[in-house]
User: What shape does this take?
Amino acid sequence: MPPFLTPPRVLGLAAALAAALADQAHKYWMLDIFGIQARQPITLAPFLDVVLSWNYGVSYSLFQTHEGVGRALLLAGQSVIVAGLLWWLWRSQSRLTTLAVGLVVGGALGNAVDRLTRGAVADFFYFHTTLPVGPLANYVFNVADVAISAGVALLLFENIFAPAPSAQDATDLRGRH
Assistant: This one.
């Protein structure tokens, strides 16, 4: 294995690839094989349906745009974020961090492919409740969003439960450039 492909990097890049491929495979199956548009809604539970919803914006449909320039700006912003996340993944030596960041990158890439090829992001899972829980009362998401959420949850878990760095670790970090 080339020296630049350390085990943590390989794990993170594999997670990114797996998340993006799983998302795109699911979307292809739902749209082109299963034909969700003609079969919706499908109730899975009293709080969860399978539907087709096109998101022309970002999370919670913020910054919606149907036009080429607006879509290009969303993709440009997403590209900058993904580049920053890849830089973080590349520099990290923690397997958990690279796994988590890889999931976030893969989810972002899966949604970016939709924006490029379909003009909007396809969402399928409709979580709904009548409980007063704010914005989660109605939420539509896809496999990419699950990967992003899982990655963020892993980062939070690592940040909360990771042991504090020792004094020697801090000295070692100051010596690296």
Q: What stands out?
A: Residues 42 and 50 are 5 Å apart (CA to CA). The longest strand covers residues 48-55. The longest helix spans residues 7-34.
